[in-house]
């Protein structure tokens, strides 16, 4: 659905087109969620956006930025909202908590649970909650309870909840205590700079994470905030981030960026639209120097494999990142790209070789498999380390990422092993 084809149409027609597009893509699967999307006027919650942008199935609408220009509040893309609502399996009469208010998603949930249900939406920013309250009242959803406060505990008095949906990037997950025994919790959880939206369901003393989905959200503020280390290079055209490790030397990394680079090619190829998102999970498993690199598309100092955030191995003064080049074939329709590595800085050649080897291991042993399993455990309890995997320790919880056994899988690198 492009802006050029829908901009002159009415909101009612755009809403119907959006529902049809989400059904075709598979993001909408139930009649209850589809009816909510067909009913709630999305344009009333994003008045700053043109109609075409408001009803684009895959576009986020940014509603607030900080002084540096970064988004601090947004209304998520409809495809992701639909996926999360379907994952939550909301029913008539359900009690729902949303963390991160925009108003529109809360209205969708209110439509699904009906007047016999309840929706509580929490945000730490008074600008966001005032706006959400106003838009919800104006569109007839004044029964949604909008709470201003820190999501760590602001909604405790209204629980327990049959479903919890977190619509900000959360490094930790303290809300399990508020979930009803058979409830579902949908959380875009951050670990090692990766974000995956997972549906957590209770299993004994822990939660099992289902259907990890690649996504991106505005980061959590308040007590739950956990900023990554970051180095900004080339006047903001390149940004490097890593969760832990030695302090980054932005000046040294900036010099490394413009110095001659190491270039290696892996003989691993991908086709157009072919997913390879488990590569990031594998890199985060086996190398604690894993992080992300972002580059302005107009910057000619780097060539990233993915347009925006791309995997990188990173030390205080050097880095190596994933790149691609087109592999020419006789059949013009069979366009493929070979994965490669560019290394920068005094340790760049070694980082490039190690990233190269990690990619080949993933391609040989793990690429065609189901990907890792996730479980979420309380902090402070003994959690056995997986044979191939990693435990991400957080303040309230521990996230365990475990890969299915494979006879040729490399053993995980112990975090902290690299300098």
Automatic annotation (TrEMBL):
Q: Pfam families from the xrefs?
A: PCMT
Q: Which UniProt keywords apply?
A: Cytoplasm, Methyltransferase, S-adenosyl-L-methionine, Transferase
The UniProt transmembrane annotation reads none
Record's keyword annotation contains Transferase: yes
Could you tell me the Gene Ontology terms of the biological process aspect for this record? Answer: methylation
Q: What class of enzyme is it?
A: transferase
Q: What InterPro entries does this protein map onto? A: Methyltran_FxLD, PCMT, SAM-dependent_MTases_sf
The subcellular location is: Cytoplasm
Give the GO molecular function terms. Answer: methyltransferase activity
SUPFAM superfamilies for this protein: S-adenosyl-L-methionine-dependent methyltransferases
- EC number of this enzyme: 2.1.1.77
The highest taxon in the source lineage is Bacteria
Which NCBIfam families does the protein's record reference?
Answer: methyltran_FxLD (TIGR04364)
- PANTHER family in UniProt: PROTEIN-L-ISOASPARTATE O-METHYLTRANSFERASE, PROTEIN-L-ISOASPARTATE(D-ASPARTATE) O-METHYLTRANSFERASE
Q: Which family does it belong to?
A: Belongs to the methyltransferase superfamily. L-isoaspartyl/D-aspartyl protein methyltransferase family.
Q: What is this protein called?
A: Protein-L-isoaspartate O-methyltransferase
Q: Which organism is it from?
A: Actinoallomurus acaciae
Q: What is the lineage of its organism?
A: Bacteria, Bacillati, Actinomycetota, Actinomycetes, Streptosporangiales
């Amino acid at each position: 659905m492009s802006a050029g084809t829908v901009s002159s149409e009415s909101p009612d027609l755009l809403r119907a087109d959006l529902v049809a597009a989400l059904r075709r893509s598979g993001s909408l699967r139930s009649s209850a969620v589809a009816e909510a999307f067909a009913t709630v006027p999305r344009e009333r919650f994003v008045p700053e956006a043109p109609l075409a942008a408001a009803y684009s199935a895959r576009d986020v609408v940014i509603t607030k930025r900080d002084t540096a220009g970064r988004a601090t509040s947004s209304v998520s893309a409809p495809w992701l909202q639909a996926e999360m609502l379907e994952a939550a399996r909301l029913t008539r009469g359900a009690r729902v908590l949303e963390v991160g208010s925009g108003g529109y998603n809360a209205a969708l949930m209110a439509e699904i649970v009906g007047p016999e249900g309840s929706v509580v939406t929490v945000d730490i920013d008074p600008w966001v909650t005032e706006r959400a309250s106003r838009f919800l009242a104006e569109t007839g959803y004044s029964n949604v309870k909008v709470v201003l406060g820190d999501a760590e505990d602001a909604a405790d008095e209204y629980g327990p909840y049959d479903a919890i949906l977190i619509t900000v990037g959360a490094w930790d997950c303290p809300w399990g205590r508020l979930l009803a025994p058979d409830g579902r919790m949908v959380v875009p959880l951050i670990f090692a700079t990766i974000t995956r939206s997972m549906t957590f369901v209770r299993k004994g003393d822990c939660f099992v994470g289902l259907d990890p989905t690649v996504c991106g959200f505005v980061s959590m503020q308040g007590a739950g905030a956990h900023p990554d280390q970051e180095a900004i290079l080339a006047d903001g055209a390149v940004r490097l981030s890593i969760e832990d490790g030695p302090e980054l030397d932005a000046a040294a990394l900036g010099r490394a960026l413009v110095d001659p680079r190491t270039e290696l090619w892996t003989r691993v190829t991908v086709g157009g639209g072919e997913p390879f998102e488990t590569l990031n999970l594998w890199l985060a498993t086996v190398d604690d120097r894993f992080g992300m690199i972002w580059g302005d598309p107009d910057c000619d100092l780097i060539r990233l494999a993915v347009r925006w955030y791309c995997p990188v191995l990173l030390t205080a003064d050097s880095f190596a990142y994933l790149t691609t080049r087109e592999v020419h074939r006789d059949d013009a329709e069979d366009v493929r790209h070979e994965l490669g590595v560019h290394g920068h800085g005094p340790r760049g050649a070694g980082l490039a070789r190690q990233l190269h080897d990690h990619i080949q291991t993933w391609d040989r042993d793990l690429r065609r498999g189901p990907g890792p399993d996730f479980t979420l455990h309380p902090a402070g309890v003994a959690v056995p380390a997986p044979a191939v995997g990693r435990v991400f320790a957080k303040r309230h919880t521990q996230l365990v990422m475990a890969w299915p056994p494979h006879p040729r899988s490399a053993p995980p690198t112990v975090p902290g092993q690299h300098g």
